[in-house]
C-alpha cells in the first residue's frame, strides 16, 4: 500500500501536467488563428471592399448589423466594419512602431547600465526609478499635449513611457551574463568593454528584447486607444479604435450598442491574441518559467 501511494500521486500530477499542456496548446492555436485573422483583415479588407470609409450617408446612419453592413453603421452612416478595420490598422501601426522604438531605447539604456556598472549604472537606474514613479498615462498625456494630434506624437508618447521595463530586463540579463566564464575569458584576453558588450552581451539579450517588444505591442495599442478616447491622441476624423469608441458614446446612451461593441472587440481580441502568443514564446525561451506554469 505504501508503494501504491507514490504511484497514484505521480499519475495525478502527470495527468494534471498533460491537461495543462493541452490547455496551453489550445490557447496558442487560438491566439495564432486570431492574430492571422487580424493580419488578413488589415491587409485584405480595404482593397477588397471598395467603399470609402470616410463616405458620409446620413440616410443610413445608425443602422443595426445586417447583410449589407455586418457591423452596422455609425452616426454618420459610415460602414462600421470598414471603419474598425482601418482603426485596427492604425492602432497596430502605432503599437508596433512605439514598441520597437521603446525596445531599442530600453535595450540601449539597460545594456549600457549593466555593462559599465559603477556610478553609471546607479545613475541610470535612479533615472529609471524616477520616471517609473510617474503614471504612464499621465506622462503620456503631458507629452502628447505639447504637439498637435497626430500619429507621431502618440508613437513618441508611448515609446517614452514604455522603455523602462525593457531597460530593467536587459540590465538584469547583462548582469547575469557578466559572471559567465566566457565573458571572463574575453576580458582576460584583452577585449575592451565595448567589444565584450557588442560581441557577447548584446547578442545574448536580443531574444529577451524581442520578446519585450512583442509583449509591448498590446500595451501600446491600449495606451493609444486611451489617449485617442480622451481626445489627446489621433484627430477625431482619423479612424482609430480609440476615436471610434469615443465617438460612439452618444449612440450607446441612445440604445445603439453596435458602434461601441465592435470597436471595443477590435481592441480586446487582437491584443489578447498577441499577448497569448508572446506568453507562449516566453515559456519557450525561459524553461524555469515554463516549468512553474506547468505546475
Automatic annotation (TrEMBL):
Coiled coil spans: none
Membrane disposition: Multi-pass membrane protein
Keywords: Cell membrane, Membrane, Transmembrane, Transmembrane helix, Transport
Cross-referenced PROSITE patterns: ABC_TM1
Sequence intervals crossing the membrane: 31-49, 90-120, 127-145, 261-281
Compartment(s) where it occurs, according to its Swiss-Prot or TrEMBL record: Cell membrane
Gene3D superfamilies in the cross-refs: MetI-like (1.10.3720.10)
Protein's recorded name: ABC transporter permease
Native species: Streptomyces kebangsaanensis
Amino acid at each position: 500500500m505504501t508503494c501504491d501511494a507514490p504511484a497514484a500521486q505521480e499519475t495525478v500530477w502527470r495527468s494534471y501536467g498533460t491537461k495543462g499542456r493541452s490547455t496551453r496548446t489550445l490557447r496558442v492555436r487560438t491566439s495564432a488563428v486570431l492574430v492571422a485573422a487580424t493580419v488578413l483583415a488589415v491587409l485584405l479588407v480595404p482593397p477588397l471592399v471598395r467603399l470609402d470609409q470616410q463616405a458620409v450617408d446620413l440616410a443610413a446612419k445608425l443602422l443595426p448589423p445586417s447583410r449589407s453592413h455586418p457591423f452596422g453603421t455609425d452616426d454618420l452612416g459610415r460602414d462600421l466594419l470598414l471603419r474598425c478595420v482601418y482603426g485596427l490598422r492604425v492602432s497596430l501601426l502605432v503599437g508596433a512602431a512605439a514598441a520597437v522604438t521603446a525596445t531599442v531605447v530600453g535595450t540601449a539604456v539597460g545594456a549600457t547600465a549593466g555593462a559599465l556598472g559603477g556610478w553609471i549604472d546607479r545613475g541610470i537606474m535612479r533615472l529609471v526609478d524616477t520616471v517609473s514613479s510617474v503614471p504612464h498615462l499621465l506622462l503620456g498625456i503631458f507629452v502628447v499635449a505639447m504637439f498637435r494630434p497626430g500619429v507621431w506624437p502618440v508613437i513618441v508618447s508611448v515609446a517614452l513611457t514604455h522603455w523602462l521595463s525593457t531597460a530593467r530586463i536587459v540590465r538584469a540579463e547583462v548582469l547575469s551574463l557578466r559572471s559567465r566564464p566566457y565573458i571572463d575569458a574575453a576580458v582576460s584576453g584583452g577585449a575592451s568593454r565595448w567589444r565584450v558588450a557588442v560581441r557577447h552581451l548584446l547578442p545574448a539579450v536580443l531574444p529577451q528584447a524581442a520578446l519585450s517588444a512583442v509583449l509591448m505591442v498590446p500595451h501600446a495599442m491600449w495606451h493609444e486607444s486611451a489617449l485617442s478616447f480622451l481626445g489627446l491622441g489621433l484627430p477625431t476624423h482619423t479612424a482609430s479604435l480609440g476615436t471610434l469608441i469615443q465617438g460612439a458614446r452618444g449612440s450607446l446612451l441612445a440604445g445603439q450598442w453596435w458602434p461601441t461593441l465592435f470597436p471595443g472587440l477590435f481592441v480586446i481580441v487582437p491584443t489578447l491574441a498577441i499577448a497569448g502568443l508572446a506568453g507562449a514564446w516566453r515559456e519557450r525561451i525561459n524553461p524555469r518559467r515554463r516549468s512553474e506554469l506547468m505546475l
